[in-house]
Design a protein that fits this description.
alpha+beta; single chain; six-stranded antiparallel barrel; globular
Length: 261
C-alpha cells in the first residue's frame, strides 16, 4: 500500500516538473501571450498605482502609519483626497518629463515610446510597455538625455530593463571633453569608471558619458559624475567611483528609444 502511494507521489512529482518545463518552453515561444495580455491589463495599472503611491508618499506627507490610522478611523474622504493628489502629481510629472525629453539634445532621427515604471529591484526596472507597443530587446531606455539602461526581456505588455547599476552591466564610456576612456560597471553596489589608463588625469565632478565604442549604446548619453579617484601606481589601470545622475527608484516615467535606421 505504501509502495503504491509512493509511486503515485513520484509520478505526480515528475508530471508537475514536465508540465512546468512545458509552460516555460511555451512562454519562450510566445504561445502564452494570449493569456499574459489580459492578465497584464489588469495587473499593470495596480502595480503602477502602488509604485506611484510609494514614490509620492513623502510629497503627500503621509507615512505608512498615518495611512493605516486613516483606514482604522474610517476617514475614507482623506484616502480619496490622497489618491487624487497622487494621480494629479503623476499626471503633472508625466507631462513635465515629456517636455524635458523633447528639449533634450538627442539625435533628430530617434523616436521614443513613453513608458511607466512598474518596479525597480536589484538593478532591474520593469516598465508597462512591451511587444504590443513595438518594444524590442536591446533598445535603449533614457530619461531626458541620461542613460537609464537597456531592454533585455520583452513580454506583450511589460518589459524588463537592465539598469546602468546592474551587477553585470558594462558600458563603454568616456570623460566629457577629454580623450579619457574606460568601462562603467558596478562592483559591490558601487558604480565605477574602470580600466582607465594610469596616465589619464581624472578629477572629481568630471562628467562621464557613453562613448558608443561598444556599438550598443549611442554616444554622448549622460551616465554619472566622478565622485572620487582610486589610484594605485603599481596597477595598469586606475578607476573612479561614480555618482549617477539619476535616482532610479524615484523615476515614474522613462522613454524607450529606437533609431529609424
Amino acid at each position: 500500500m505504501k509502495t503504491d502511494k509512493r509511486e503515485k507521489t513520484i509520478i505526480l512529482f515528475f508530471t508537475l516538473i514536465l508540465l512546468s518545463l512545458s509552460l516555460i518552453g511555451l512562454d519562450k515561444l510566445g504561445w502564452l501571450d494570449f493569456i499574459k495580455r489580459p492578465v497584464a491589463k489588469i495587473v499593470n495599472p495596480i502595480r503602477e498605482k502602488i509604485y506611484q503611491i510609494n514614490s509620492n508618499r513623502q510629497k503627500l506627507e503621509l507615512t505608512p502609519f498615518e495611512l493605516a490610522e486613516i483606514v482604522k478611523k474610517g476617514e475614507f474622504l482623506e484616502i480619496e483626497n490622497a489618491n487624487l493628489q497622487t494621480e494629479l502629481e503623476a499626471f503633472r510629472k508625466e507631462n513635465q518629463d515629456m517636455r524635458k525629453l523633447l528639449g533634450a539634445p538627442l539625435a533628430p532621427d530617434w523616436q521614443f515610446i513613453p513608458a511607466k515604471v512598474l518596479s525597480v529591484k536589484n538593478g532591474i526596472m520593469t516598465i508597462n510597455q512591451g511587444s504590443d507597443a513595438n518594444i524590442k530587446k536591446e533598445q535603449i531606455v533614457v530619461y531626458e538625455n541620461v542613460l537609464v539602461g537597456q531592454v533585455f526581456q520583452v513580454g506583450p505588455q511589460t518589459s524588463k530593463v537592465k539598469l546602468v547599476n546592474s551587477k553585470d552591466s558594462q558600458i563603454k564610456a568616456k570623460v566629457i571633453k577629454t580623450d579619457i576612456k574606460g568601462v562603467v560597471r558596478q562592483v559591490n553596489n558601487i558604480l565605477f569608471l574602470d580600466e582607465v589608463l594610469q596616465e589619464a588625469s581624472l578629477q572629481k565632478d568630471q562628467i562621464v558619458i557613453t562613448s558608443g565604442e561598444d556599438e550598443i549604446f549611442p554616444t554622448n548619453l549622460l551616465i554619472a559624475k566622478i565622485d572620487s579617484i582610486e589610484k594605485n601606481e603599481t596597477a595598469i589601470y586606475q578607476k573612479a567611483t561614480l555618482k549617477p545622475f539619476l535616482n532610479y527608484f524615484s523615476l515614474t516615467n522613462v522613454f524607450v528609444l529606437k533609431n529609424n535606421d
